[in-house]
Write a structure and sequence with these properties.
The chain contains twelve helices and eleven strands. The chain is α/β, with parallel strands linked by helices. Helix 1 packs across helix 12 and helix 5 crosses helix 7. The longest helix has 19 residues.
Length: 321
Amino acid sequence: MEVFPKVLVLGLPTCYETLQSIYSHKFNFINPNSSNLPLHQFIISNHPPSIRAILCSVSFPLTADFLRLFPSLGLVVTTSAGTDHIDLNECRRLRINVAGAGGLFSEDVADKAVALLIDTMRKISAADRYVQTRNHGGEWDFPLGYKISGKRVGIVGLGNIGMEVAKRMESFGCIILYHSRYQKSSVSYPFYSNIVDLATNSNALVVCCALNEQTKHIINREVLLALGKEGFIVNVGRGGLIDENQLVKCLIEGEIGGAGLDVFENEPHVPQELLALDNVVLSPHCAAFTSESVMSLCELVGGNLESFFSNMPLITPLKLD
């Protein structure tokens, strides 16, 4: 009987069901959700030394202690572009390869970022709620939104996603500004090394940088106040990039114009205060996922697993040095 290599599945990645149907003849997917056992017992029952690969989503933190449970582990594949849920230092120390989604989601996330900005500034979701709850005759008296064209859009993190956002906003005639770790010689957009200055000079901020120790709460109260009462913010990066308590406070106090949020600081928890605000558009961390992107993700994850177990170079390896 042929024995397929074991792949431990953690956090139920969005593509898992499709991936399993396509690759179950090549890999033995070990899924804790299929068992009533506590996770630790489930892992012990599946002989940890026999597990050489882990497939995880952003919802499952791979800590150093957890990684050390698997002495033969050689690969972690995450279905996300971000890797803040993985202890990369421990992966480097244990010589565990890591593969991510690369730039697979850049266009879809950028589409969602622009959609959230338009929705928030033009009050599309709020207008829908208004019509559905007030469709009883009489005059409509809906508050005005803001024009998109010509606005100054500050992008926090001009990587793959940020560049796609810039491209889309330029088609609206918007002026692009940005903040990144370094100024990019390949673009002519004005660069701001100080994010408060970026906010001061922007009508809207789109946050799409990676979350790490340096960028946690990069959007704090000072930045939000600099953005101003007619300023808008969109976050398609990670919830921890924004000080969520201060964001809620600024929204309630009218210190900023509105927010479009696909991510939250303590997912899946969403602050109750946000649910009652008409100048906020909320989305359940799904900017990356479309029917097309999920199929492409399955192919990418499967390709990385095949490459690893065939001793071939990974398709989307992370540099850990």
